[in-house]
Each structure stands twice: as structure tokens, then as C-alpha cells.
What we know:
The protein is of the alpha/beta class.
Amino acid sequence: LDTYLKEINPNAIKIGFDNDSCFQLSRQVDRFKSEILSYSRLAYLYALLDAPSRRLLFHCKLFPYFDIFIHGERGTGKTTLARYIHELTNAGSKFVTVSGAELKNPELLHSLLFGHVKGSFTGACSNRKGYVEEAMNGTLFIDDIHTLPPASQQCLLTFLQERQYRRLGESSMQNACLRVITATNVPESYFHKVFEPDFLDRIRHTIFRINPLRSCRNIILPMAKDVLQDMSTRTGINYKLSPGACQKLLAHDWPGNIRELKAVVESSCFVAGLNSVVDSSFLRL
């Protein structure tokens, strides 16, 4: 497909098109290539999911407000998976991301999650929506959920069970309609050390497990070539991997997974400069 797209030269199409039409066609081709690249990245992420998670992925659309827990090492694409699930089920609504580190303080958690009204505390000069209200009818993604202390976990657990919230300074309860996706990179053997038992029982009922990149080495080179293609589009230089570079990429264990691979390949193009062949010496591993 990419070979076919490269043969399309909108600037060379003269008959029946003015300059503006040629420009629009060129933009459409670029956008189409970008969409193809985006779908290929999702395919790589799908390849890293374990078998039960792949099956669950097709159930997401049937249950648009069912909470989900994503587990995977750092850099495996947990946020990308969360966004894909959102687009699959609640496209057109908001996708709100918050780090668990922001919610560590139990005193601030209520205001951040559920919002507050003017005058509810010193410094509350106006009404403020919480993350839950911002994500209404959409998805609230809480990354690094393991960083929440027990008191914050208990507060979030109550909300997940009751599906109701109250803004700080108000007396009336509001109903919440949204999907909450949580994620962590903590090994499962440590779950009992960072999660309260009741909270863990609640969030892990629908778990998506993303395997590390080293467990699926057959996608390493295709992913690297996709990153090179993206860099080639941005720079105008047709980058290619040398045989030695391919061997070096395959031999690495990738503790930083997809994020590390993307950063390494992109930086190798920077080191290569005008040299279109990315040699193994350009890979900073």
C-alpha cells in the first residue's frame, strides 16, 4: 500500500485540477498515510495483548460504561489502549486523563475528582468541574493507580460502586455515567502491597494484560520501520535500517518497551543526519 501511495504525485496531476485541488489532494494522501500508520500501531499493540484480553476487546462496545483495569510494564502502550477502547465505545465524547500521583492527597482528591463550588474552602473563588464531570458520558483514565494511598483508594472505591458523587460544598448527589479505566505497571505479585483488598477486588474484575515487547520479537523490526517511515515523511530523507542495525534491535531486551523503541529509532535518525542508512552505531542502546 505504501509503495502505491508513493507513486501518487498530486503535483503532477494537471488535467481537471487547479492548484488548490492539487493541494487538497496532497493533504488527503498524507492524512490517509497517517491513518494507515496509526492502524498499524494499534495492530502491534493488539499483538502484545494476551489471549483473554484480545477477546475482551470485542466486548467493550457492548458494555460502554464497564470499568477496565490495564496492566503492563512501562512504555507498553497502556494509554494508547485506553484511548482505543474509548474511541471504540464512546467516540465523540471526552477522554480525560489524570495521573494517580495527582490524587495522592486525600484532602485534594475530592475536589479534583468531583469538583467544588465557590466558597467551599479558602481559595475556592469560583465553581470548578471535577474530572468525573468533565468525562461524563465518556472515559476517565487514571494512570499509575498504584500511587493512590489507602484513603484515596477508599474514596474512589465508593464512587465506583455507587456511581454517584457530590461536589465539595454541595449537599445534593449527582449521578455519574462514564467508563473509568485504571492502569498500573506494578508487577502482579506486588498488587497486595500497593492495593487495598476491597479496592483490588473492584478494579481487577476486567483486566487487560499487555505483554512486554521482548515477548513478541517478531514485531520489533516492523515497528522500527514504521517509525523510520514517519521520520522519512517528516524530514524528506528515505531512512533504511542496515542489517547490523536490525540485528542490534532484535538482540535488545527493551525494558522501556514500545516507548523506548520509538525513542531509540527516532534519535538514530537524528544521529544519522543526511545519511539515509541507519547503521548499528547510530542506535544508542
